[in-house]
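Pinned message: reference record for Ribosome-binding factor A
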Amino acid sequence: MESKRQQKYAKLIQKEIGDIFQKDAKHLVGRAMITVTHVLVSPDLGLAKVYLSFLLADPESTYKLINDHKKEIRHQLAKRIGKSVRVIPELAFFPDDSASYAQHIEKVISDLEIPKAPSEEEDEDTED
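Predicted structure (C-alpha cells):
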C-alpha cells in the first residue's frame, strides 16, 4: 500500500513526464504519442517505475529509444520539479500492456460457447 506521500509524488511525476514527452522530447519520439499510464514510487522516493503506452509508433523501438535517453528525461524532470522535491528519483520505464491484455481477455470471453439458461417456465415445469 502506497503512502499519501508516494501517491502525491507519483501523480506529480506522471504529469511532468507526460508534459516532457509532449513538449520537450519531440526530437526523441517524433510523431509517436506516449501516454504515462501509471507511476509507482518506492517508499524512499528514490525510484519511480513509469509505465508507458504507445500510439502511432513501434512500441519496441520507441521503448528502447526512451530507455537510451533516460538520463536526459530525468534531467528534464529535475528542471521541472527540482525546487519542490528533495530527491529526483531514478526512472525505470516499462511498457504498459494492459490494453493488449484487455483485448485478449475480451476475445477469450467472446469466443466462449455459453449454453442458454433454461427459461423460468421450464424450471417451474420440472419442479412440479
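Pinned by admin. Summary line: Helices lie at 4-24, 26-29, 59-68, 70-81, 98-110, 120-127.
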